[in-house]
Sequence to fold (158 residues):
Amino acid sequence: MANVLVIDPEKCTSCRLCELACSARNAGAYRPARSRIRVLIRADEAFYFPRVCIQCEEAPCIEECPTDALVRDAATNVVVLKEDRCDGCGVCESACPYGVIWCLDDKAHKCDLCGGDPECVRFCAPDALRYESQDRWPPGDRQAYADRLRGLVQEVKR
Fold:
C-alpha cells in the first residue's frame, strides 16, 4: 500500500518548522515563501492549518496544465512537476481547488513528497504531519481535511 502525507491540523502549533525545512530542501534557503507547504494562521482564533498538496486522484492541475508539466508518477502515484516543461503560466495555480500550488519566479511550485521522504515530516515535532501507509488516514478523514481546506481557500479568496 502506498504512503501518503497524513495531516492532523488539530496538532499543528504553527511553529512553521515544516515551512523552513521544505524551503531549505527545495530552494536551498530558509525562506518560507519558497516552501511547498504553508501554514494558514489565524492568530486571533489560535487556528493553524497546514496547507499542502493532497495528491488528488482526479487532479485538476494535471488536467488543466497546457504544457503537460504536471504528471502523475506511475510508481508513487504522486503528482510531480516537470520543471523543464513549466512556463509559469499559473493555470495550475488557478485550477487547484485547495490553493496549494504557487507560481514563483516563472515556475510552479508544489509538494512532490520529497521523492518519498518528506522533509516537513522529519521536523514536525507536534506530529501534525506524518508519512504513513494510506490505510492510516481513512478516506473519510482525508476527505474531511480536503473539504475543510477547500472551504478555507474559498474564504481567503473572498
